[in-house]
Amino acid sequence: MTGHKTHHSPPQPNGTAAGKLIASLDNPQAFGHPLQNLRVIETHISWVILTGQYAYKIKKPVNFGFLDFSTLDKRRRYCAEELRLNRRFAPEIYLELVEIRGSEAAPRIGGEGEVIEYAVKMREFPQSCLLSAHAAQGDLRPSTIDDIADTLAALHLDSNIAAVDSDFGSAAQVEHWSEQNLVQIASAIPPEDLPNNYFGLKRWYRENQALLEIVEERRRAGHVRDCHGDLHLGNMALIDGKTRFFDCIEFNPELRWIDTLSEAAFVAMDLHARGYSGFCWRFLNRYFERGGDRDGIALLRYYFVYRALVRAKVEALRAGQEKPGADKYHAALRPAIDYIDLAANWAAGHRAGLVLMHGLSGSGKSTVAAQLVERLGAIQLRSDVERKRLFGLGALDASRSSTGGGIYTPAATEATYNALGKLAQQIIAADFTVIIDATLLKASQRRLFLELETAPSMRRVIVDCDAPLDELRRRIAAREGDASEASLEVLERQIQAREPLESAERELASVVRVDADGIDDETIERIRELLFS
Hints:
The chain is α/β, with parallel strands linked by helices and 533 residues long. The protein has three domains: 6-124, no CATH class; 131-348, Aminoglycoside 3'-phosphotransferase, Chain: A, domain 2, CATH 3.90.1200.10; 353-532, Rossmann fold, CATH 3.40.50. The protein is built from 19 helices and 16 strands. It has helices spanning 17-24, 72-86, 131-137, 142-158, 171-188, 196-207, 211-220, 260-273, 277-291, 300-319, 327-348, 365-377, 383-390, 410-429, 443-450, 469-478, 488-497, 503-508, 521-532, and strands spanning 6-8, 39-42, 46-50, 54-59, 94-102, 107-109, 115-123, 224-226, 236-239, 242-245, 257-259, 353-358, 378-382, 433-437, 459-465, 510-514. The chain has a seven-stranded antiparallel beta sheet, sandwiched between helices. Strands 13-14-12-15-16 form a five-stranded parallel beta sheet, sandwiched between helices. A two-stranded antiparallel sheet has the order 8-11. Strand 3 (46-50) and strand 4 form a beta hairpin. It is elongated.
């Protein structure tokens, strides 16, 4: 069990003392239990020995500045920390800290003699369970993405908040680690191999210094928490149909006590980097919907770039273990360059836009909006969810409100739309596209969004969803497990109260009609052109 790694069996780690120890552990007698398919997986900071039933993780005696495993005592301490911290996510996987005794030539786990190394003993699971393996096979499923988002949102809501007098997650720390990524990338990659957009990213950081003020605001607001710190698909596994996180950062608390949005951005970035850009946006929307934390949307691009450069740094360090100039070196360097390209593309991206869903309950607005989220790359704001959030309810909680009463009074509806307008303005100001998923049956409600004053120039599209009234009634009668609480009585009121689109609205926004059959690829591309071409 481990993340996406470079495989060796047996390893040949440059003839070091640690390398001799690992090579000697390629021996069934060293473990004291039956073995199956003994195998060693190597990363830039550790070796993981797979035995079939158990896995043993041994830290390399390295010091990269951001981590220091250079002494035996430090490796023991960080093995203990790894065990403690990862039991938060997967207690059934992380078993115990074990001693390796004997000699480098004849080591024994739990044997006699002097302690020469330490390892974290884990329950092994098939490498095919890794979500990175699923991604490579092209079989990541929407339900898995939703599970990741739900699990992470719940984890963040339940995590300890950094003390107000700590420096964790401060603007100074975030700036420091962003700079360190650039410094370490430049140290690991020769100048002649650094792409031009690396230097563009250095300028981009200088031009976005003002974002550090928001970093500090979020720290004071309690968004810096004890997170995982290294959450990409290689550190997630699908076991018994449930997503499990593992292999969190234990070696430097500054990299683990972070803004929760930085961690969510890591997952989104990794999905995008692996070719799942639609799932990147699906994950972000589900995470925001479950956790409710959209206040930091202005930092999403910043943290996405940061996380791409973290991976570029890791890949550059791994490439540095190959001989410079050799074919293997250039092949190993390619992923680092790809991550730098991804960071540069996001830094330069300008995708502000507004999509208003419009139509009676049951007309398919939320289904179409969810498709547009993945195809356009957008943030969806669903009135049914945000209304309940205002009243302290979960998306699927029943409000038990009467028609026009409870959380559906005119005052509650006005408050809901005002909240949606504020969130929409934040998303557009951050240069992202927002989809307002609401009935928007009154002209005054539509004007609230169409007349938003925003800094980035943007285009507006109204997606007018419609279906025969008998079909709407059938859908609402059959609806289960949805955030919407619209009833047949509500639908009849909507039919009587709806106001048609006015000519002034059509001058402010393009209108695209979607019928009961739903949206097709051609219509999605038309919306994309209306927004971005």
